[in-house]
Design brief:
alpha/beta; Rossmann fold; 7 helices; seven-stranded parallel beta sheet; binds NADP nicotinamide-adenine-dinucleotide phosphate; 7 strands
Length: 248
């Protein structure tokens, strides 16, 4: 049990990578609070994660929702040892078609949402807490259509450095976790037919040196590492978990 008696808050803990991290943290002995927008998956995740789980419905781009999440977590746990800033949206839009509204919405969730999640959690974070910011290996590469998404993820990677420096006096570690291409419900949200989604996934597999997409559990195991004392000498780092994508 690497996270015995720890208390964790995970945004986007009701789907994909966030849910896998919540399960892994539970299996390692932590109690978890999750935030998401979809009431159905939120309820299902709370049931799956078991008694003691705190589930708050809210949007990370809304500061009042973030505050409510941390009030709920604070009332249940008294404080937080672990914060996983995971909620995010993905969409590929060519430069020509990118509207200011799309730009602002994606930035509001992926970047502004990440920043204020940490800020609003701050009063609850205990000494020696671990903050994990979920970015993407795409933050270091150039892919047509992903300019806005990749830039929001590069901003999140940058936050890990600045916040690690700023929170050092409180002994709070801040690291970025960079998934490559992971098989989650994120692809089902692209507005494509199932068959098109499968086609996209098999195209993407061809780009990964290991020849396959990653699983949410493979990201969750890396999150347990960054959350636990196993990574006690790491802060401001980026940990890529990508089957070699972007590395070789
Ligand atoms: N899958 C990949 O290949 C991949 C690769 C690199 C990085 N990532 C990053 O990993 C993170 C998780 O993605 P995933 O693949 O697990 O996708 P997912 O299954 O679609 O999960 C996204 C999660 O974020 C939540 N979320 C989205 N917008 C939100 C908002 N405005 N407020 C609150 N919650 C919000 C969703 O909750 P609702 O369903 O309730 O909206 C959901 O729980 C994202 O930051 C993504 O950018 C994913």
């Amino acid at each position: 049990m690497k996270l015995e008696s720890k208390h964790a808050a995970i945004t986007g803990g009701n789907s994909g990578i966030g849910l896998a991290i919540a399960r892994a943290f539970r299996n390692e002995g932590a109690e978890v609070a999750i935030l998401g927008r979809d009431p159905e998956t939120l309820q299902a995740a709370a049931t799956d994660l078991g008694p003691g789980t705190v589930a708050t419905r809210g949007d990370v781009s809304n500061l009042a929702d973030l505050d409510r999440f941390f009030v709920d977590a604070g009332q249940a746990f008294g404080g937080l040892d672990l914060l996983v800033v995971n909620a995010g949206v993905y969409s590929a839009v060519p430069l020509d078609d990118t509207t200011p509204e799309f730009f602002d919405r994606m930035s509001a969730v992926n970047f502004r949402g990440a920043f204020f999640t940490v800020q609003r959690a701050l009063p609850l974070l205990r000494e020696s807490a671990s903050v994990i910011l979920v970015t993407s290996t795409i933050n270091e590469s150039g892919v047509p259509g992903l300019a806005v998404y990749a830039a929001t993820k590069a901003a999140v990677r940058s936050l890990a450095r600045s916040l690690a420096a700023e929170l050092m006096p409180r002994k709070i570690r801040v690291n970025a976790l960079s998934p490559g291409i992971i098989d989650t419900p994120i692809f089902g949200r692209l507005g494509m037919e199932d068959q098109q989604v499968e086609g996209l996934k098999s195209d993407l597999e061809g780009q990964v040196p290991m020849g396959r997409l990653g699983t949410p559990d493979e990201i969750a195991r890396a999150a347990v590492f960054l959350a636990s004392d196993d990574s006690s000498y790491m802060t401001g780092c980026e940990l890529p978990v990508s089957g070699g994508l972007g590395q070789i």
